Amino acid sequence: MVSDAEIKRINELVKKSREEGLTEEEKLEQKALRQKYIDAVKLSLRANLDSIRYVEDLEENKPKQ
Predict the structure, then answer these.
(1) What's the superkingdom here?
(2) Domain coordinates of the chain in residue numbers?
């Protein structure tokens, strides 16, 4: 998971890149932090999607009376 400090750093780098530009080292740091954030979002989304159950599937699995 991405920490609040890492999200804050991502935002700092975005602001700095807009105002004055980034050094090569900062660009690499920004790229790594962004990728970590994207991976965390994908993982969270996958977990949410995997937990979805369709109503039709639940109805089919009920015992028939």
Answers:
(1) Bacteria
(2) 4-60
Report d(CA 7, CA 17) in Å as an integer: 15
Residue-wise pLDDT tens digits, 10-53? 999 999 999 999 999 999 999 999 999 999 999 999 999 999 88
The Cα–Cα gap between 19 and 15 comes to: 6
Residue 61 reports pLDDT greater than 80:
no
Spatial separation of the C-alpha atoms in residues 24 and 32, rounded to whole Å: 12
Separation CA 39–CA 6 (nearest Å): 14
What span, in angstroms and rounded, lies between the C-alpha atoms of 41 and 7?
12
Q: How far is Cα 16 from Cα 22, in angstroms, rounded to an integer?
A: 7
Cβ neighbors of 63 (< 8 A, separation 6 or more) are: none
